[in-house]
Amino acid sequence: MSSVLVIGSSNVDLSATVTNLPKKGETLMGKSFSTSFGGKGANQAVACGKLGADVTFLSCVGNDDYGKNIIKYLSSVNVKTDLIKVSDNCPTGTALITIDDDGQNTIVVISGANAECDVEYLKANEEEFKKCEYVLLQMEIPLDAIEYAIECAHKYNKKIILNPAPADPNISVEALKKVDYLTPNETEVEIMAKTKGFKESCDALLELGINNLIVTLGDKGAAIINKETNEIVEGFKVEAIDTVGAGDCFNGAFVTALSKGKNEAEAIKFANKASSIAVTRKGAQEAIPTIEEMENM
Ligand code: RIB
């Protein structure tokens, strides 16, 4: 099995459930509140760990209880956490989440210590890029750090997966061209392409020189699109109660399956299954299934 390096954010998720998502200027009564661990980077690292990958996580948390407990939880699900930076300058990142009765959500992220998952920190950990085979990134850390990570992974000939969430189209085209798999959802594909329309946006990204697009389509599954292929790997129909972190579960599962030698279609099928289980449960990290649960379902 090849190893995976996940680089990205760690947050504490403050989640409220509501009947309907609030409109601009509206105050409404929530139904419940919970605190749990999140962050797109940490969620993806947890998915890798729970699903049996050999995974190292580079991230930055605050020197507070949240930060300490996040590291403890990550270690308990087989994520290598030795290199996670603990900042004395900033608190652990925070996400304010509302989830409606259909399981849909809105999320506001306050970076906190994630801002210190920067170029300097990644340079100090360059050895990790040499050791792994796959580098998995999202976009909740500084943009120049993401570009540096892509450059460094490319230098050592590693496979690069970029989940453009939250989508930032200001990333350099040079960096995007080096990504092996760009994994947006249907909204993010348009933002990254700076174009309207699904097909037009996919074409624009391929035209830019992106190697493979894996577009997640909710319960419809995911599409793999490149110069030769345009194929949908069907998803599983389930009753979603909470979609927070479903994309993260997909990305972690996808790279885990690749690291175990699966081909792209098999890896997408595995990722569709893992994320379809995750949306039937509450929370981001606790909803992600283990490899044993996957095998039994
Ligand atoms: O993708 C879901 C995640 O987005 C949440 O866990 C939250 O922390 C934000 O990063």
Account of the 3D structure:
It is a single chain. This protein has helices at 40-50, 65-76, 119-124, 126-131, 143-155, 173-177, 186-193, 198-208, 246-259, 264-278, 291-296, and strands at residues 3-7, 11-17, 32-38, 54-58, 60-62, 79-80, 85-87, 93-99, 105-110, 134-137, 159-162, 181-182, 212-216, 221-225, 230-234. Helix content is 36%, strand content 24%. The radius of gyration is 18 Å and the shape is globular. With 297 residues, it is an alpha/beta fold. β10, α5 and β11 (159-162) form a beta-alpha-beta unit. The strands form three sheets. A nine-stranded mixed β-sheet has the order 6-4-1-10-11-12-13-14-15, with helices on both faces. It has a single domain (3-10, 40-91, 114-290), classed as UDP-N-acetylmuramoyl-L-alanine:D-glutamate ligase (3-Layer(aba) Sandwich). The chain has eleven helices and 15 strands. α1 packs across α9 (246-259) and α9 packs antiparallel against α10. The structure holds alpha-D-ribofuranose.
Strand content: 15-25%
Question: What is the number of domains?
Answer: 1
Please write the string of helix (H) and strand (E) elements: EEEHEEHEEEEHHEHEHEHHEEEHHH
Taking pLDDT < 50 over at least 5 consecutive residues as the criterion, the unreliable ranges are none
Helix content: 25-40%
Largest sheet properties: 9 strands, mixed
Distance between the termini: 23 Å
CATH topology heading: UDP-N-acetylmuramoyl-L-alanine:D-glutamate ligase
Overall average residue pLDDT: 97
Radius of gyration: 18 Å
Shape field: globular
CATH hierarchy class name? Alpha Beta
Number of strands: 15
Bound molecules: alpha-D-ribofuranose
